[in-house]
Structure formats: C-alpha cells, structure tokens
Amino acid sequence: MSTITRIKCKTDNCYLISEGRNAILVDTGSLSNVMDSPAA
Question: Which residues contact 4 (CB under 8 A, 6 or more apart)?
C-alpha cells in the first residue's frame, strides 16, 4: 500500500508518494511561482 504525504509550501503543495524504500515527489507548483522566486 502506498503512502501519500502532502508537503505544504507557501501557496502550493507537493506530494511524496512512497512504498517501502521507493518514493516519488510530485511538485504541483505553478510556473508563475517559479519565475517569481529569487533563484529563477
């Protein structure tokens, strides 16, 4: 059974989906927030 963990970051969310020792990170952030960041 997979476990889904929500990671809240300002106005967006990411989700960590894990099963055993395997995991994927799903980034649901918007492109406008990426372009507004200081690192962009």
Answer: 15, 16, 17
- Where b means 16+ CB within 10 Å and e means fewer, 3-32 reads eeeeeeeeeeeeeeeeeeeeeeeeeeeeee
pLDDT digits (tens, 9 = 90+) for 18-33: 999 999 999 887 766 5
- Residue 13, helix vs strand vs coil: strand
| Cα–Cα distance measured from residue 31 to residue 25, given in angstroms and rounded to the nearest whole number | 17
Asked if 3 and 18 touch (Cβ cutoff 8 Å), the reply is yes
